[in-house]
Structure formats: C-alpha cells, structure tokens
Write a structure and sequence with these properties.
This protein has 4 helices and 4 strands; from the N terminus they run E-E-H-E-H-E-H-H. The protein is an alpha/beta fold.
Length: 121
C-alpha cells in the first residue's frame, strides 16, 4: 500500500459461471461436466443458471461492493462464449458492463490514478 489510498485498489473476484438460456440448460451443462469427471465431485458455481439469473447475481455482488471486476474462468468448453453472448448484453443494458471505453489502459478504464514514476527526472 506504499503511497496509495484504499481508493487506489480494486476488488477482483474470479468465478467459473455456468450459464444457459434457461435454468434447465445450465443444469444440463453442469450434469455433462459431472459425467466427464466421475471421480471428481464438482461444486455448483456461485454464478449459475439462466443468463438473467447470472446477470442478477453479478449485479448484486457489484452493487454490494463485493467486486469491482469479474475474472471469468471456464471448465465448460463453451462457457466463456455463453457468458459473453448471454450475460454481457444484459449487464450492458443495465449499465454495469461497458460498451465503450474512455481510456486505452486498464488503469484508466478503472479510474485508478497513475502513480508518479520515481525514476523520471
């Protein structure tokens, strides 16, 4: 934290969502993953269900301050594509996910200050 305030930090959470067009489709994907790894018991992810339900869950976490950024991990082959195609448009409609970016850097887009370079003259 040297030289930084608490506002200079963001909370990044990493999850493995399983998203379907419907709850039943998400459940089918979950069961398929279970069948591919019979010796390994997969826990149902926190962000799980229909696109609308997952968008609601992401929004709840975001608005509660539990995360500033969501890092998506995937075990299901089309999981990232499902999240991008089904959930992201809902989050964009709600103003939670950007449609355009103001800066060309991650720091700038997150609204974080640029630290002074102690090596510059």
């Amino acid at each position: 934290m040297e030289g930084r305030s608490t506002e200079d930090f963001i909370v990044v959470t990493s999850h493995i969502p399983i998203v379907g067009s419907t709850e039943a489709e998400a459940e089918d994907k979950f069961q398929e993953m279970q069948s591919l790894m019979p010796a390994y018991r997969i826990q149902r992810p926190l962000f799980f269900g229909s696109a609308e339900k997952v968008a609601d869950q992401v929004q709840e976490w975001y608005e509660a301050g539990a995360m500033d950024m969501l890092l998506i991990q995937q075990e299901y082959p089309s999981g990232l594509k499902n999240f991008v195609d089904l959930v992201v448009p809902i989050l964009q409609e709600r103003g939670i996910f950007h449609t355009e970016y103001e800066s060309n850097t991650l720091r700038g887009n997150l609204g974080l200050p640029y630290p002074e370079n102690k090596f510059s003259l």
